[in-house]
Amino acid sequence: MNKSILLCGVGGQGTVLASKIIAAAAMNDGNTVHSAETIGMAQRGGSVTSHVRIGTAFSPLIPLHGADMILAFEPAEAVRNLAYLKKDGLVIVNRVPVMPITEALNASGYDGSEMIEYLKKKTDCIVFDGSGLPSAKFLNIAMLGVAAGSGRLGIETDLIRQEIERRVPPKFLDANIKAFETGIRTGGEN
To answer: What is the pLDDT of residue 80?
Structure first.
């Protein structure tokens, strides 16, 4: 299998953990995997982008127009990284925005809705409403569920579930598995 997945969000959303789960699950399925992270600010709120390339790749970084899937934990980050998406690629985006400090100070009214509408017009897009989760801490795992449920990730859900069980602390495991299953249902509906 050859698949390039770009994950993007802001610091604190679990983008890096989600990319590590995808990479490990793909390796457990016998695939070669290359991955890399580009992190904007080294604090919560800064842009975080993870590249996961499964199969043959000459670089861990996805070239422009090379991503089969963008898994975006924040609407503006999805739009910011849209140039990476292939023509027939899929965008999975969380509807809930994370307001940057600059927006909070300017009171511009950013709510992510314009970004979502733009993505729906320009791409094959699945919108996930992360506000229904018991905590934003489970968003990354729920988004993995959406990707798996869509059928376009190319990795069996059981392999992803096994990696979640290996990497998530036991006290948070049940809630994360429930979030993953919620995401699977959402992905399967689209």
So the answer is: 94
State pLDDT tens for residues 143-153: 999 999 999 99
Interatomic CA distance for residues 147 and 129, integer angstroms: 14
Closest CA to 26 of 8, 7, 5: 5
Strand order in the sheet with 124-128: 33-39, 47-54, 3-10, 67-72, 85-94, 124-128
| pTM for this model (two decimals) | 0.93
Within a 10 A sphere around the Cβ of 133, how many other Cβ atoms?
A: 20
List the structure tokens of 52. Answer: 């996961």
Tokens 């927006």, located at residue: 103
**Whether 101 contacts 37, CB under 8 Å:** no
The CATH architecture of the domain made up of 3-189 is: 3-Layer(aba) Sandwich (3.40)
